[in-house]
């Protein structure tokens, strides 16, 4: 297919699409993959496995002290008990933010990320600016996400160098005493569970 | 290897650029790449450490400029050629030219849920006792293998403190090369930012890495 009349980016993308489609056809023809399985994998991460899973874990830990204690003791078992048991979530550590400590998760060597509770990582998480600087300049990185910590809050960065995946449990926002677990989960953003954000404040009722 | 993937502490990449409302996939090919790479992993022709090794073994300039799913595809193609599943000519022409290699299994759509759910735990039955306990001081090795390692460069030859004994896990340095899983004790080790970065580290801040026992030495 030639499409040289298109602008560069468009034609480059078209070429990539064509090349990847050709590879998939080849792999199917050789009997290595089934495109229906590829579809199913994509659908799973589009619809079933994403940051709502992690938000549920966080909200439950905010309202159930026994669950919080279990998360601290054995996060893998506590999270698996909710049915969030899938690849890149086999071994999980939950790290809890507090007034005196803020946790930030990175994988400097590749893109290790707790898929079972957060889904697929965003592009910035996999890209050199974040991976290079999260360990040497975590406060500078946080500032780029609009987050400035109190000088008395120490930063603990977790570089995911093995098969242990890290989930940040953000602090529960003030003024959320009357909220249900589902309402609390709405306040838990993906970035809050990576450590590049905080849980959102509840909207004031008008 | 001291390659382009070992990015901790490097400079010059500019600010982090989070996209507002970033889509899960930026183009259809990214979704197909994800699905294909996961499905190919299920063929059982290589392990996750070999896949990481293939992804990081690129010219560092290419590595840092290549989109992540493109890195995945490039590594998958390389592994398939190495394992004689495909030839370069087949990739170039997009049609089968030689008979397919026998694979451990071809993932069927109805088995996807079970495969994803099972995942790939890296812990193995424990053998012996861990050499270190929580609170122990350790020094990381100063070693620069040309092959795959998870001992990040910025934390080599540094003194840290054991903060957790994770268990007994597959050792990537061996597994990536097809030399067996050789499981080892795995620890969480905390390093002060000052130890890692000198004056550029902030007092009180720290970084933890998860490191296998062969990376660690007793501090006397």
Automatic annotation (TrEMBL), chain A:
The protein's name in its UniProt record: nitrile hydratase
Molecular-function annotations in GO: nitrile hydratase activity; transition metal ion binding
Catalytic reaction equation(s): an aliphatic primary amide = an aliphatic nitrile + H2O
The protein's Enzyme Commission number: 4.2.1.84
NCBIfam families in alphabetical order: nitrile_alph
Organism superkingdom: Bacteria
Family label: Belongs to the nitrile hydratase subunit alpha family.
Family matches, as SUPFAM superfamilies: Nitrile hydratase alpha chain
Every Nitrile hydratase alpha/Thiocyanate hydrolase gamma domain range: 15-196
Record flagged with keyword Transport: no
InterPro entries reported in the protein's UniProt record: CN_Hdrase_a/SCN_Hdrase_g_sf (IPR036648), CN_Hdrtase_a/SCN_Hdrlase_g (IPR004232), CN_Hdrtase_asu/SCN_Hdrlase_gsu (IPR023900), Nitrile_hydratase_asu (IPR018141)
Residue numbers binding Fe(3+): 107, 110-112
Keywords tagged on the record: Iron, Lyase, Metal-binding
């Amino acid at each position: 297919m030639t499409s040289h009349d298109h602008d560069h980016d468009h034609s480059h993308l078209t070429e990539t699409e064509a090349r990847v489609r050709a590879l998939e056809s080849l792999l199917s023809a050789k009997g290595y993959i089934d495109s229906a399985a590829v579809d199913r994998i994509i659908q799973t991460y589009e619809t079933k496995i994403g940051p709502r899973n992690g938000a549920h874990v966080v909200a439950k830990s905010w309202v159930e002290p026994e669950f919080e204690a279990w998360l601290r003791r054995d996060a893998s078992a506590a999270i698996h008990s909710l049915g969030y048991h899938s690849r890149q979530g086999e071994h999980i550590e939950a790290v809890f933010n507090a007034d005196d400590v803020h946790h930030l998760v990175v994988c400097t060597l590749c893109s290790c990320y707790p898929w079972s509770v957060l889904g697929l990582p965003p592009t910035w998480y996999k890209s050199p600016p974040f991976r290079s600087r999260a360990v040497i300049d975590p406060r500078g990185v946080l500032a780029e996400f609009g987050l400035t910590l109190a000088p008395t809050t120490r930063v603990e960065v977790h570089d995911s160098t093995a098969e242990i995946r890290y989930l940040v449990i953000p602090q529960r926002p003030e003024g959320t005493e009357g909220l249900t677990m589902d309402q609390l989960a709405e306040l838990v953003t993906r970035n809050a569970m990576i450590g590049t954000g905080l849980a959102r404040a509840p909207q004031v009722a008008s | 290897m001291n390659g382009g993937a070992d990015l901790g502490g490097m400079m010059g990449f500019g600010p982090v650029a989070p996209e507002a409302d970033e889509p899960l996939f930026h183009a259809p090919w990214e979704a197909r790449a994800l699905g294909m790479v996961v499905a190919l992993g299920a063929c059982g022709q290589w392990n996750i450490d070999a896949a990481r090794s293939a992804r990081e073994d690129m010219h560092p300039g290419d590595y840092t400029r290549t989109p992540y799913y493109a890195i995945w595809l490039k590594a998958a193609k390389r592994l398939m050629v190495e394992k004689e599943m495909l030839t370069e000519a087949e990739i170039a022409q997009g049609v089968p030219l030689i008979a397919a290699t026998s694979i451990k299994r071809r993932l069927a759509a109805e088995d996807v849920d079970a495969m994803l759910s099972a995942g790939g735990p890296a812990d193995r039955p424990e053998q012996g006792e861990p050499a270190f306990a929580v609170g122990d001081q350790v020094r990381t090795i100063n070693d620069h293998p040309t092959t795959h390692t998870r001992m990040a460069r910025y934390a080599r030859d540094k003194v840290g403190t054991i903060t957790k004994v994770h268990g007994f896990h597959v050792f990537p340095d061996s597994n990536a090369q097809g030399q067996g899983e050789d499981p080892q004790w795995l620890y969480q080790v905390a390093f002060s930012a000052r130890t890692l970065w000198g004056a550029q580290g902030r007092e009180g801040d720290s970084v933890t890495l998860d490191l296998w026992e062969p990376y660690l030495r007793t501090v006397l």
